[in-house]
Amino acid sequence: MISTPAWRLEHTYTRLPGLFFTEVEPTPVEMPQMVIFNEALADELGLPRDDAAVYAGNKLPSGARPIAQAYAGHQYANFTGLGDGRAILLGEQITPDGGRFDIQLKGPGPTPYSRRGDGRAALGPMLREYLISEAMYALGIPTTRSLAVVTTGENVWRQDGGLPGAVLTRVAASHIRVGTFEWAAAHRDVEALRALAEHTRQRHYPAIENTAMALFEAISEHQARLLAQWMLVGFVHGVMNTDNMALSGETIDYGPCAFMEAYDPATVFSSIDRNGRYAYGNQPPIAQWNLARLAEAMLPLFHDDEEKTVEIANDLIPKFEERFKHHWLAGMRAKLGLFTEEAEDAVLIEDLLTQMKESGADFTNTFAALSTGSSEQDAWQSRWQTRLAKQPQSRGEVEQLMRRSNPAFIPRNHKVEEALAAATGGDLKPLHALLAVITRPWDHDQKLPEYSNPGSPVGYKTFCGT
């Protein structure tokens, strides 16, 4: 029996202490118009095809109880109080198969946490989030997703003048962040902290042992796997503040993100990351740094004895590095068609990356060429072929593994910028054309040089859109 699409909103987050949220309604906009709607995602969620007024915040869906969530965060290592300054959570949609997902409006107007901001969003950044989050989903990387983008009929004013306003509907396993725990810790409210930990466990890790240590370990494992997946496709998040680390293990916040083209661990795209704190190669250690902040916030939950609780945290935090290396090495082996494990593999991989950096080779295309046998032979490839010969799998099996581990297409930065510029000007064709390609990233038989050739200008920069 097929269930009828409907809003089925619940609100378990609001059972937490009041310091974690404030009730607030969206501010109506002048003229909401649908720009793009994710029908496949709506079907998964069991949602109806509501009109633009719902996704702009002008009309609340049945059962909505809108709130802005409160949290803190270390932004570029500096601690500050934050909260949803331009986002409002409508509730948790219960899907036809019993899943639970946050439905959040991004850009629906000011909240008590707006900090003198207007609570609005511009069309370009909201479409960027739609594009990149759907690309990440197609790549098999845990991510928040985008359900709809609606224009508001109003301008938002930023440093570069007036821009078309828009509201994005974001879907997430939850919006609980490292910064949510930091918020409770900053209030020195141990009972609120304990309630948040139990809520997080029940929401995301119900099968684990009911201890704070087990919860931290589960979060660390999911972050290690996520970071490895980022690194394996050249994704640069751009703003890895603790308020942008979701404890579900999903990628969240697609502000100044981009995909690396020429391989270089020092690659930075964000216009405000002047010191390279969140460079491509720094992402794993920054994730561990963020987890250390989570451990600090959770200290009262680890043990009643202060000395013992610090000892526990110091034992837990370093495990991330080993977990990350495990997932990254396994992923790199798959990218090279290696089913078995040999001690020499790490050196073989690092030598390839060194060669790529020295030559300025495109990260995605290098591995795609290896997958299809279209790359030029060199000394490193001779070593690789010798290594492949040590395993029992056939060349066909090796090629299949590589094809499903190395994307043929990523959201090329110049194509993203072209699509966003055209969409801002009212032409959605480039956006839909790009979306059609990047949601089929493993299609190596599709020859589309316009979408696979690198083209980012030197010094390419991205902006957070706030």
What is this structure, in a nutshell?
The protein has 466 residues and is of the alpha+beta class. It is 41% helix and 15% strand.
Structure description:
By secondary structure, the protein is α+β, with helices and mostly antiparallel strands. It has a domain at 9-172. Helices cover 41% and strands 15% of the residues. It contains 16 helices and 13 strands. It has helices spanning 39-45, 52-56, 123-138, 178-186, 190-204, 212-233, 283-302, 306-316, 319-335, 345-359, 363-372, 379-388, 395-403, 413-424, 429-438, 449-452, and strands at 9-10, 21-23, 33-37, 67-69, 72-75, 78-81, 87-94, 100-106, 121-122, 145-158, 161-172, 235-236, 258-259. Strands 1, 3, 7, 8, 9, 10 and 11 form a seven-stranded antiparallel sheet that branches. Strands 2-4 form a two-stranded antiparallel sheet. Helix 4 runs antiparallel to helix 5 (190-204) and helix 4 (178-186) packs across helix 7 (283-302).
Write the layout of secondary structure elements.
Blueprint: E1 9-10, E2 21-23, E3 33-37, H1 39-45, H2 52-56, E4 67-69, E5 72-75, E6 78-81, E7 87-94, E8 100-106, E9 121-122, H3 123-138, E10 145-158, E11 161-172, H4 178-186, H5 190-204, H6 212-233, E12 235-236, E13 258-259, H7 283-302, H8 306-316, H9 319-335, H10 345-359, H11 363-372, H12 379-388, H13 395-403, H14 413-424, H15 429-438, H16 449-452
Antiparallel strand pairs: 1-7, 2-4, 3-10, 5-6, 7-8, 8-11, 9-11, 10-11, 12-13
Helix pairs in contact: 3-14, 3-15, 4-5, 4-7, 6-7, 6-9, 7-8, 10-12, 11-13, 14-15
